[in-house]
Amino acid sequence: MATLNTDIRYIKGVGEARAKSLAKLGITDLRSLLSYFPRAYDDRRSYKKIAGLIPGENACVCAVIAGEPRLSRIRKGLDLIKLRAVDETGALELTYFNQSYLKNTLHTGDAYVFFGRAEGTPSRPQMTNPLFEREGAHQITGRIMPIYPLTAGVSQSMLCKAVEQGLAACVDELPDILPEDVRLAYQLCHTRFAYENIHFPTDDEALSAARRRLAFEELFLLALGLKLLRERRTFVAGKQCKKVDLSPFFTSLPFSLTGAQRRAIGDIARDLTGQRPMNRLVQGDVGSGKTVVAAALCALAAQNGWQAAFMAPTEILTEQHEHTLRTLLEPFGIRVGRLTGAMSARQKREVKQALAGGQLDVVVGTHALISDSVTFFRLGLVITDEQHRFGVEQRAALVRKGEQPHTLVMSATPIPRTLALLVYGDLDVSIIDELPPGRQPVQTVCVDERYRARLNAFIDKLIGEGRQVFVVCPKVEDTDDIPSELKSAEEHAQVLQRTFPQHRVACIHGRMKAKDKDACMAAFAAGETDILVSTTVIEVGVDVPNAALMIIENAERFGLSQLHQLRGRIGRGPFQSYCVLVSDTRTEESRARLKVLCDTADGFQIAEADLRQRGPGDFFGNRQHGLPVLHIADLGTNMTAVNDARDAARAVLAADPTLCAPEHAALRAQCARLFAANDGHFN
């Protein structure tokens, strides 16, 4: 009897060669084989008469072979078999390529069921290379058949047979990890039934029940694992902060904090005075003032004798943050430095020495901060900006440079409110949902190529008024494998330079060296460039208050949240700003998506719409968070299941906070497997 850990090689019918091919799909043992779910299904339960075949549709036909198959040699390496099959309504022409053995397999007068795409015409129907089996066999027809994602060397029939053998080999090795009371409360089927019917459903109802059970299980394990990670922090002693009067800091600001900013700072202050290390996400829309919140936190840390490390994804962004923090903190005697890979060896050495000796209170840097040569005198606070740009291990490496430091992650990528607490379940969440007063909303319109002349005139007008322009393209350069109608940054920059010879045009994209990108962005920020043509590399970038227009070419190629992030690069100054979405899309779906962006500037509303329209995908950056990937569950369309799973997880942990009860052993083990990227925190 096989176990779920049994190597795929030892499953009947697989062997060494097929195991190597299956490994390309991530299938290495019985567990991964059974968890490799179909992407779609073919309903082969009903048969059609030959006269009822519709060209272009897949169909099953039961017919009798009429006459001997004819073998033809077209050329070396290519032969074909032609034959006729008939039923009481007509005749069907069948063609098979390079399957000469069929001449002795398909026998005149015998009945077979054929499944394939109908071709030809209604009066002369044809099929090419259809699947077939003897009438009544019901191995590949007469049932709902799974369709799996494939790779070279792996066929649908091979995968189907492997899964069938895998299910047969582990009759008693599919334990139901859901507590029985949870399964009954939510009317979920047993594990065995779910796995059998997700792969080979007996009918539509069985498939629906299987999907519902497996989706619930994924969400339940996600919620359970995140709650365990969160609760783990209650058992770890953190650096307790003494209360600090921040009113002098607030008074020194050249602006008034929004209510949302004050709430976030209050949340952080309570965390720091508590017994456990802070682990908080500050999530705010573009331009909502997250950096000021981080500055207040750095002030709290410094006045408690701790150092703060502030990690940002780009060199130029670190320069911006350093300037902001120096302006806000140095009047209070808080020393701010910067560390990036582009600095000279002498500069880096001086900063590292100052950090190790305690002469710096705050350091802003790129991933250079996690270098082995960087040590801190007393690291008590770690801040990560645009946290989705860093992997789990990068953030963890910086945290390990201190002894249980407090951590704050910041994100300008809105997550729908309904999902943030689940997705970031191991974090406390503060949401900044107000923009600073006086900020003018960006006027957004969607146009097509017919408006190009008017758009060019508008560009010229704004530059004449002293403003600058962003132009975003979906690709770097023209290539044969990407549709030519898509604008490329390099080519479009040349077009714009020819169109506006009197203006300064530059181009920036992800294939450039980091130092070249930073130099290009710095020149734009300094006003040395009028038009900056870019790919989405500017999605996370430096503020340019003078930029008043953003044009996004082929806007239908971007997700709504991404478009919103791009739009957030403008509207930072005192001028009215504009975003123009250029799209010739004719699909109602694409037009509806773009209309959402034109109708609202609320990033959270946009995120909700984006999630509904395109589904979750890697929306939450699960791989970046070390979270398990969801294969069945859909975070975007079934909030009832999300809430049910969260409630069930909360109830289980209320009764058994560490899942140490014998009946929860399998549940705990599965959480450990799924959250393996989180340093074994379940062990």
Architecture blueprint of SSEs:
Blueprint: H1 15-23, H2 30-34, E1 40-43, E2 47-48, E3 58-65, E4 70-75, E5 78-87, E6 90-97, E7 111-117, E8 119-121, E9 124-128, E10 131-134, E11 144-147, H3 156-169, H4 180-185, H5 191-199, H6 204-232, H7 247-252, H8 259-272, E12 279-284, H9 290-303, E13 307-311, H10 315-329, E14 336-339, H11 345-357, E15 362-365, E16 379-384, H12 392-399, E17 406-411, H13 417-423, E18 428-432, E19 443-447, H14 452-464, E20 468-472, H15 489-499, E21 505-508, H16 514-525, E22 531-534, E23 547-553, H17 560-567, E24 578-582, H18 588-599, H19 603-614, H20 622-625, H21 639-655, H22 665-674
Parallel strand pairs: 2-3, 6-9, 12-17, 12-18, 13-15, 13-16, 14-15, 16-17, 19-24, 20-22, 20-23, 21-22, 23-24
Antiparallel strand pairs: 1-11, 3-5, 3-7, 4-5, 5-6, 7-10, 8-9
Can you tag this structure with a few keywords?
single chain, 683 residues, OB fold (Dihydrolipoamide Acetyltransferase, E2P), Rossmann fold, 7-stranded parallel beta sheet, 36% helix
Describe this structure in words.
By secondary structure, this protein is α/β, with parallel strands linked by helices. Among the domains are: 1-41 and 152-173, DNA polymerase, domain 1 (Orthogonal Bundle), CATH 1.10.150; 46-142, Nucleic acid-binding proteins (OB fold (Dihydrolipoamide Acetyltransferase, E2P), Beta Barrel), CATH 2.40.50; 239-274 and 289-411, P-loop containing nucleotide triphosphate hydrolases (Rossmann fold), CATH 3.40.50; 443-600, P-loop containing nucleotide triphosphate hydrolases (Rossmann fold), CATH 3.40.50. Helix content is 36%, strand content 19%. The chain contains 22 helices and 24 strands. The strands form four sheets. Strands 2, 3, 4, 5, 6, 7, 8, 9 and 10 form a nine-stranded mixed sheet that branches. Helix 6 (204-232) crosses helix 22, helix 9 (290-303) crosses helix 10 (315-329) and helix 18 (588-599) packs antiparallel against helix 19 (603-614). It is globular, with a radius of gyration of 31 Å.
